[in-house]
Structure formats: C-alpha cells, structure tokens
Amino acid sequence: MSVKYALLALLSWRPSTTYQLRKDFDTWTGQTWPLNIGQVSTTLQRLERDGLVVREAGAVDDPAAPEPWRLTDQGRAELAAWWRSPVSRATRGRDELVIKLALAAVVPGVDVAALIQRQRAATQRTLHDLTRLRRGLDVTDLSARLVLSNHIYAAEAELRWLDEVEETVTRAKLQTGKAPKPASSTTADNLVRSAR
Fold it and tell me: How far apart are CA 20 and CA 17, in angstroms?
C-alpha cells in the first residue's frame, strides 16, 4: 500500500495537518491499515523534498497552530497519473504467507499441516472480525466499506488457497512418500511471471 499516494489523495480534498491526515486515513480505510504519526511525517517530508507538497503559512490568529500541508501543481499531476495507472501485481510486494508455506513444503522437519491449520484458524477469525465490522458500518461510509470488502474477499481467497496448499502437499507426499522437492529456478521464475 502506497502511503505516498494515499496522502496525496487526501491532500487533493483539502489542506491538512500531519495529525489530521493520519486521522482521515484511519477513518477512510475503516482503521484496517493504521498509520503511525512518524510514518505520515516522514512521508510528508519526502513529498516536500520532491516538490509534491508544501506547508501553508500559519494562521494569523494562532501562530502556534500547526501549518497545514497542501498539494503543489506537481503533486496534483503526480496524483492524476496515479489515478490513471492500474496497480500491477508485481508492485504489491512479496507475500510472507506464500513464501512461508512454499518453504515449509520443502524444508525437512516442518509440520506443514499444523502450519496450515494455524493459519486457517487465524484467517477465519480475521474474516469473522472483518464481517462484523462491515455489518456495523453506516451505509454512507463508502470508503471504509470498500476497504473492508477487499479484506473480506482477500481472506476468503486465502482460505481457498490454504485448502489447495493442503491438498497439493498431501497428494505430493502420498505419491512420493516424502516432502516435495524444491522447484528449479526456471520453474519458480515461470510461476512468478504467471502470477503477475
């Protein structure tokens, strides 16, 4: 998730202080991706360095009030380009669970079935919590509803994938009598490319 573009999007709505940006982000994402204030501050400093945001002059009636950030023309252009660009699966980062299970399937001594069961239980708890949160949202809270729906679909997909992993590992062990062997680098490269 790009904090940079999230902050640019929030600033396109209105100038805001660092604290207000953090609060708005947490509110609009249903508090499912909490940002700490240091992360917001550091990102804003980089955006300022790159000419995408500037600080507005302080209020005359309260010189001690924090100065709000606002987008520059360059920041608006950068944000507009982001809105037009689809998100590539290749830029979403490595998924720790995928890597963990891929390694567990081939590293001797790892109880893959127990690992899958623990992950399944955790994902089911998460799915239950997300569903409860979404049910509690006001129908007009569109951004939080969209974020929570995405998390729910991702959790459901993860549960289906865990079923597939369990079946694949079990079948491989039955056929060979041992854990599957590691994929060749060519096979692994092809799998990564096909997943994009």
Answer: 5
For 86-116, what is each residue's pLDDT tens digit?
Answer: 776 665 556 778 878 887 887 778 888 999 9
Please name every residue paired with 53 in a beta bridge, in sequence order, or none if there are none: 71
Q: Tell me the C-alpha to C-alpha distance, in Å, between residue 149 and each of 54, 120, 132, 157.
A: 34, 19, 11, 12
Fold of 3-85: Arc Repressor Mutant, subunit A (1.10.10)
Q: Residue type for 177, please?
A: G
Q: Is the overall model pTM greater than 0.70, yes or no?
A: no
Burial class, 180, CB count within 10 angstroms (exposed 0-12 / middle 13-18 / buried 19+): middle
Tokens of 177: 């009598």
Measured distance CA(60)–CA(83) in Å, rounded: 35
